[in-house]
């Protein structure tokens, strides 16, 4: 993906950090197998030279992502994320109609737990993982969720939703717990070919100024259009 304008996705910037609305389909950092693939960190380094990674979003996840511009900001923000002092809010469209209005899951997860490199539930050897879900709306087999991960494991939201039978719309890697047959064909017929997980907001303390920050990213156009198409927009 190389058709984005860096200036157009900046949500906040000062001398210490930069916060962006990452487009879906763009890597957060360099690919482990192909270092030449376009990624957000490399693009930022081309512009700012010195950039430090704080956290990552999956390639197909859009939304709020933060990078540090100096070592001190990196150290402080890294500590904030590790100590769970930041608050993350995601939005997702899922398959299924949960009977609950809100639900909290605390199943432990093991990263890279199978041949497809998925994060899996592992009650014995998994790391603690907590996610809270709030149902915003449901309609005809699909639901719109507010999601609050309280830990930050790789693929945590995707794995937890799949484990309870509500995989994210378009997340073909995590269909293994879902029982609808030929679901890829069903989605193709409906035109549901994108991936609908968005990092909606991030709440944290500015590393240098020590003031509270709350930064949100508008939903991608394709995400909003799908909410309207499925008649589950709020």
How does this structure look, described?
This protein has 234 residues and is α+β, with helices and mostly antiparallel strands. The protein has one domain: Pseudouridine synthase (2-Layer Sandwich), CATH 3.30.2350.10. 20% of the residues lie in helices and 29% in strands. The two termini are 30 Å apart. The relative contact order is 0.17.
> What would CATH call the homologous superfamily?
Pseudouridine synthase
Tally of alpha and pi helices: 5
- Mean pLDDT over the full residue set: 89
Number of separate domains: 1
What's the CATH C level?
A: Alpha Beta
**DSSP helix fraction:** 10-25%
Output the helix-strand order: EEHEEHEEEEEEHHEEH
Compile the SSE list and pairings.
Elements: E1 10-13, E2 17-22, H1 40-48, E3 52-53, E4 62-68, H2 71-82, E5 87-95, E6 102-105, E7 109-110, E8 120-121, E9 131-139, E10 142-149, H3 156-163, H4 183-190, E11 197-205, E12 212-216, H5 221-230
Parallel strand pairs: 4-11
Antiparallel strand pairs: 1-2, 2-4, 3-4, 5-10, 5-11, 6-9, 7-8, 9-10, 11-12
Q: In short, what is this structure?
A:
With 234 residues, this protein is α+β, with helices and mostly antiparallel strands. It is 20% helix and 29% strand. It has a single domain, classed as Pseudouridine synthase.
